[in-house]
Specification:
disordered N terminus; globular; Four Helix Bundle (Hemerythrin (Met), subunit A); mainly alpha; 9 helices; iron; 0% strand
Length: 253
C-alpha cells in the first residue's frame, strides 16, 4: 500500500517482525545486527564481523609471538608443546567466531558443522601438546603438576573434552537428552561453558610465562601475552548474542 507521498507504507506486522529480528540478534555491546550474519554473505566473513577483527588481531599476534619465540631457539621435542597448544587456541577462536553471528536455521546448520570440525581439530592439537609434555616428563623423570600452568593445562583439556562431547551429542544424537527440544534447551549452558573454556585456555597460556621453560628458554613477557589475550576477549565478548545466552528480548507491547 502506498502513502500520499507515493512511498509504499510498511505494515505494522512487518515493522514488528523486523524489530523482533533485530532484538533477537542484539549483541551484548553495540547495535542490533552488528554481530549478525547477513543473508547470502559467505560464512568466512563471520571471522572478522564487527569486533571480530580485534579477536583475530589478538590471537594471530599471540600465535606469532609464541612461534617466533620457539623457532628462534634450538628445537627439541618439548618445542612441539607450545606450538601445538597455541594452534589449538587459534583454532578454537576461529570456531567461536564462525558460529557466533549465525541466527537463521540454515546459517546455524552450516555453522555448527564448521564449529564441531574445528573443535575436534583443536582438541587433537591439545592432545598432541599434552602427549609431548607427558612423554618428556616420563622420559626425563620430571615432576608432574609442579606449576600452575600444569594444573590449568590438564583442567582445560578435561573441560574441553566434556564440552566437545556434550556439544557433539546434542547436535548429532539429541535422543540422548530426551529429544531435540530438550537438547536445544541446554544449548545456552553449552555456550556459557564454551566461553569459559576460552577464558581458561587464555589464562593457561598467560600462566606459561611463569614456567621454567619460558624463564630459561622462550622468555615470553607477561605483559605481551596478557595484552594479546585480553584483545581476543575484547573482540569476542561484545559479539555474543543476548538471546543465545537465554536473555529474552523485551516485548513490543
Amino acid at each position: 500500500m502506498a502513502s500520499a507521498t507515493g512511498i509504499p507504507e510498511r505494515r505494522y506486522s512487518d515493522v514488528e517482525s523486523d524489530g523482533a529480528e533485530q532484538r533477537e540478534t542484539e549483541p551484548l555491546l553495540g547495535r542490533p545486527g552488528d554481530a549478525s550474519q547477513e543473508e547470502g554473505v559467505p560464512m568466512f566473513k563471520n571471522l572478522v564481523l564487527g569486533t571480530g577483527i580485534l579477536a583475530q588481531l589478538g590471537i594471530v599476534l599471540l600465535v606469532i609471538l609464541i612461534w617466533a619465540s620457539v623457532l628462534t631457539k634450538p628445537l627439541i621435542l618439548f618445542s612441539g608443546h607450545p606450538l601445538a597448544q597455541s594452534l589449538a587456541v587459534l583454532t578454537l577462536a576461529q570456531s567461536i567466531l564462525t558460529l557466533q553471528p549465525t541466527h537463521t536455521a540454515e546459517q546455524k546448520r552450516i555453522g555448527q558443522r564448521i564449529h564441531a570440525s574445528l573443535n575436534l581439530i583443536a582438541f587433537l592439537l591439545l592432545v598432541t601438546g599434552v602427549g609431548i609434555i607427558e612423554y618428556n616428563k616420563i622420559a626425563n623423570n620430571g615432576a608432574h603438576f609442579h606449576s600452575l600452568h600444569g594444573y590449568l593445562g590438564v583442567i582445560s583439556s578435561i573441560v574441553l573434552l566434556l564440552q566437545y562431547l556434550v556439544g557433539f551429542t546434542m547436535w548429532a544424537t539429541p535422543a540422548l537428552y530426551g529429544g531435540e527440544h530438550n537438547a536445544k534447551s541446554i544449548w545456552k549452558y553449552h555456550r556459557y561453558s564454551g566461553y569459559f573454556v576460552l577464558v581458561l585456555l587464555l589464562v593457561t597460556v598467560v600462566s606459561a610465562v611463569d614456567t621454567d621453560y619460558n624463564k630459561n628458554v622462550l622468555k615470553l613477557k607477561l605483559w605481551a601475552t596478557l595484552l594479546l589475550s585480553l584483545l581476543v576477549l575484547v573482540g569476542i565478548i561484545p559479539r555474543i548474542q543476548k538471546q543465545k545466552l537465554g536473555f529474552k528480548a523485551p516485548s513490543l507491547i
